[in-house]
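Example 3.2
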Amino acid sequence: MEKNQNIEKRILWVAERLFLEKGFSGTSTTEIAKAVGCNQALIHYYFRTKEKLFWDVFTPKMEHVLDYLDAPFQEGEDFFERIQNVIDFYFGILELDSRLAPFIVNELIMHPARWDVFRNRFLRDERRSGAFKKFEKAVADEIEKGTIREVLPIDLLMDIMSLTVSSFIVAPRGYALNECDSTARKEYLERRKADVIGLVVNGIRRQQDI
């Protein structure tokens, strides 16, 4: 049993590395099996299809990202400070691994079928959507109080995600990777983070309050 669990974990670990490095279409189960040191049939035994393997790899990570929506909204800060905390957290995640931003764009945002799966699994599924529901309520409360304009919570979340991801995708060469001076990289990302916070906050704040 322990040996089987170790093989399953190794398949997940290798698949994550290859998906991030080569993308979903550029990775085959044959290649995964070779890197793991097992036969391809074993991968199909554990995960049935490459698509299921993809979601088994990344579902825990996506749940972690969405669950963080809970954290700022449990605190005593105002709504705009909470939004700033969410953006700061997402910048921090993408800074940890330079492969994540292009992966998110290529394998999720630009993949309509997979994007539909993401929405259904994480934003609409009652078992997993608790954090997003709290986010929705917080947005609705601020609209009712008149502090922000009418905005759909899903649109606000997508704005935050797309602006954050784009900071790494369209960065000057090397700035969002580890190919430049660490101080210059940090300064660039701090500037971009401040710009994203400003764009999001000023974009939803009621005009008379700006």
